[in-house]
Amino acid sequence: MSNDDAEESSGGGDDGLLRLRDEVRWACDAERPHLSPEEWCRGGFGPALVPPEEDVPPPPPANGDLPEPPAPDLAELEPPPEVRFQHSAAWEALRAALMAEPEELAPRLDATAPECAATFRRDFEAPGRPVVLDNTAWPDHWTLEYFADEFPEHRWRLSDTHGCTLCFEDYMRYMAVQEGGLLPPSTGDDDDPEAQKRRDLERQQRQWELFADALAIPGHDAPLALYDSQFGEFDDELATEYEVPPCFGEDILRHADSAGCRPPYRWILIGPGRSGTGMHIDPLLTDAWLTLTEGLKRWVMFPPKTSWESIGLDPAAPQLEAIHWYQKYVAERASMPRAVEILQRPGECVYIPAGWLHCVLNLAPCVAITHNYSPEPAEEDATLLPKLADLWRAIQADEPELAEKFPSLVEKARPDLVVHLAREREHGIEARAA
């Protein structure tokens, strides 16, 4: 569903539930067209609904209306029965295994250190080695609560490959189901018993609404996540609320901005636990960085020479969801190639070198900002020229419009680099790694 199709408000009752159910179904079909609705839940990782013992709305008929939760009666201070959820044993066990610190910690750099930029370029960016940056300037106010307050009705993109979007308010309803019904606790002045009862009743009402949502939306193994590359277009200030860590330097692809042919390169990522990104290599052999602003992420990275088969994947098959690959990895990691593993916390920035296979799983609800980039070589510094050659070869193969304009765009700003494009373009990342 496109942005133009859904300006209607969330609404309530049967109509709102049916619309939310249908939008989630459309998004699922677009996101993973190779999966049937049943296959989204095949691993049993989603939470189970534990209904209240009495006054339970009946399950919805196969093709009928969904039950509407009872309207709140703030004059009657007796709350309805508690609605409870229970996380699956499969998810609890996998999450516990992945919450442990990796046996071999990834290298780290202090982003505030005077020598950080030089060390990063020499020891990590040029040779292509992952690293975690500490003490970066990051938007610590970027939380789920912030986006829910600031952009409740804006429709966020789930991908650049299809047009499905979800209103953030609806996405929070979907996320609450996926997170096992987590709701904020009642707050206020506990010295006022009647006010506290009123708040408890309102919270119980939200739980009844969540119960109805759960009847409309299943608990998915790998829930839908938001991957929005157009956040700077609907709110100019969002793009100014964070800083690119200075050690990453200039991005040579910025020269394509003026011609309007630059592929998507920055995303706000939001998703519940169990969501994530399956094993992949970033497009155009670009480097990438990701700063986490809320939540907890688990990373596994394999160097460019790693074969897909050695990590239990078929490169010709559709991408395996992150949670299902991690289930395989936890059981079989002893027989897989050596990997770089990272448990990422808020404020930390992970650097992903070009060509590295990586898989990321959210262990809790997460908010993050990420950029793909290609470092512009400094004059009289040849260490990054091989990366430029890899980028140019990938552009020629995958981005014909950009390939037509890129040399002239670079020549205007850096004529010295055009010579190196011709000289280096035959050297690939595989040749350097051999």
Automatic annotation (TrEMBL):
Protein name per the record: JmjC domain-containing protein
InterPro entries: Cupin_8 (IPR041667), JmjC_dom (IPR003347), JMJD6_ArgDemeth/LysHydrox (IPR050910)
Organism: Phaeomonas parva
Biased composition regions of type Pro residues, renumbered to the chain: 57-78
Cross-referenced PROSITE patterns: JMJC
Chain segments carrying region Disordered: 32-78, 182-202
Domain JmjC: 233-390
UniProt cross-references to Pfam families, sorted A to Z: Cupin_8
Residues in coiled coil: none
Highest taxon above the source species: Eukaryota
